[in-house]
Amino acid sequence: MCETRYAPVTEKVVEDLVSILGPSGVTTDRGKRAVYSMDETLPGFERDYIADVLCFPENAEHVSAILKYANEHIIPVTPRGAGTGLSGGAVPVFGGIVMSMERMNSILEIDKANRTLTTEPGVVTSEVTKAARDRGLFYAGDPCSGDISFIGGNVAENAGGNKVIKYGATGAHVLGLEAALPDGNLVSFGGKLRKDVTSYDFIHLLVGSEGTLAVVTKIILNLLPLPKCVTDLLVPMSSVESAVRLIPLITTEGGVIPSSIEFMDRNSIHNVEEYTSLKIPHSGAAAQLIIQLDGMDRKQLWSDVERIGDLCVKNGAVEVFVAEDKNARDRVWRIRKYVAEEEWTGSMPILSKEDIVVPSSEVSAFLARLPDIAKNHSATYNAYGHIGDGNIHITIFPDGIDPSADLHALAIPLRNELYAYVKRLGGTLSGEHGVGLKRKEYAGIFMNEAQIELMKRVKRAFDPNNILNPSKLVP
Ligand SMILES: Cc1cc2nc3c(=O)[nH]c(=O)nc-3n(C[C@H](O)[C@H](O)[C@H](O)COP(=O)(O)OP(=O)(O)OC[C@H]3O[C@@H](n4cnc5c(N)ncnc54)[C@H](O)[C@@H]3O)c2cc1C
């Protein structure tokens, strides 16, 4: 996009924002601005960027009025959910206004007859899940960050997570959206409908648009019947190859689509043990899988568990641990969640965090090549993630590199080699963490000029003054 000249946030601008939101809805406090200008991308990633003013709208009309004002005065606005993003999406590159959605935090309705939940965007994801469960229904979105992220952030990122293999990513659950356009107009698409071909599919254009096209102010989610029984298998595997080979067999020979298939390599498990008090069985195994099965009928589920357990043993499992009750299942998932979290508490500097996806048939080739790519750049890595979807997270650490070296510069040739290989396998840059600011310069590797031009035209159509989350997603 061409560079836009933004107006500065003067005292008058702050006064005008106060007249829209009231004094409690606006702050220029330096400490708060710093906190609301970061996300979880990489320590220090966002250090050059800070909002000039923070706004805390309480309803869609507030959001609309802020955008209308910013659009008229050419002030950049960065929407912000809970700030758990991993691609710098909520980082205010040009300063200006950061608009936090945290006060729009009510679940508005659960409609049992239509199986829908209508919510504001600032509700924590796990509260959506719980509210649905309390009414005997199931919200199937399940990012690992669900206890901290907001549902609006999930929509903006099309968050994936643990249950995509069976239930789809966030976008698969969105039936309707209300959003404020950059000029302040409020629009709504879809509703409590399960079919609607009356227009372009704006819902799924806005889902995953990373706050660059509109600010989501209300979401209508599809709910499902609540599975009556859930069982998790923790499966240490004798080799990474056997783990990858087993995954398609679960469906083709086992005859079930699990609700999750998660993968953790030996390094990931080792780090969890090192930085937490968890003791993980067979922690020296080459890899561990978590396979979750859910269903309505306990007898049927148990027969699936037995069949899949046997299949695991025949195909390289060292052992199969079955977790049925909630405590045991929580213990299994704690391992997986710690894999993502321990990296922040661990003492190792991080060179890069990747979120690539390859077709399921190429996961094996990808993981086989990864050690060489890392070695070529004097790096080590943890590989883990949603292997059932072909989505591998890789955290890459510098190995024996001078700690004062410029890690950002060192990561560039490594990423170039990694992405070239991912592209050759028919894969792509990010499965769920998004492009944001962090991956923008690499998006062109995976798109041709016509695709990039189309993205630019879509952005211009929504946001001709380029005020909404500028410098994100669009190469
Ligand atoms: C430990 C950990 C585990 C994670 N696990 C997963 C995982 O399993 N799967 C996964 O997909 N992600 C995961 N993430 C990444 C992150 O949690 C998701 O991207 C999440 O959807 C971000 O939500 P948020 O509310 O924190 O959004 P933020 O980080 O605040 O914002 C993300 C983007 O959304 C935009 N945005 C926020 N709200 C709105 C709105 N109302 N309207 C328009 N745009 C908006 C922002 O401008 C920004 O571009 C993980 C992160 C952490 C730290």
Question: Could you explain how this protein is built, in words?
Answer:
- The protein has 475 residues and is an alpha+beta fold.
- Among the domains are: 107-225, 2-Layer Sandwich (Uridine Diphospho-n-acetylenolpyruvylglucosamine Reductase, domain 3), CATH 3.30.465.10; 229-345, Alpha-Beta Plaits, CATH 3.30.70; 352-437, Alpha-Beta Plaits, CATH 3.30.70.
- Helix content is 34%, strand content 20%.
- The protein has 14 helices and 18 strands.
- The protein has helices at residues 11-21, 30-35, 60-73, 125-134, 151-157, 164-167, 202-206, 240-252, 266-275, 298-314, 326-345, 363-376, 407-424, 449-462, and strands at residues 26-27, 53-55, 77-80, 97-100, 107-111, 116-119, 137-138, 174-180, 186-190, 215-222, 224-225, 229-237, 260-265, 287-295, 321-323, 352-357, 379-386, 391-398.
- The strands form four sheets. A seven-stranded antiparallel beta sheet has the order 15-12-14-13-17-18-16, sandwiched between helices. Strands 5-6-10-8-9 form a five-stranded antiparallel beta sheet.
- α9 (266-275) crosses α11 and α12 (363-376) packs antiparallel against α13 (407-424).
- The longest helix has 20 residues, at 326-345.
- The model has no long low-confidence stretch (mean pLDDT 95).
- Residues 39-40, 78-86, 89-90, 101, 121, 143-145, 149-150, 152-154, 156-157, 159-161, 210-211, 215-216, 340-341, 432-433, 436, 469, 472 line the site of flavin-adenine dinucleotide (FAD).
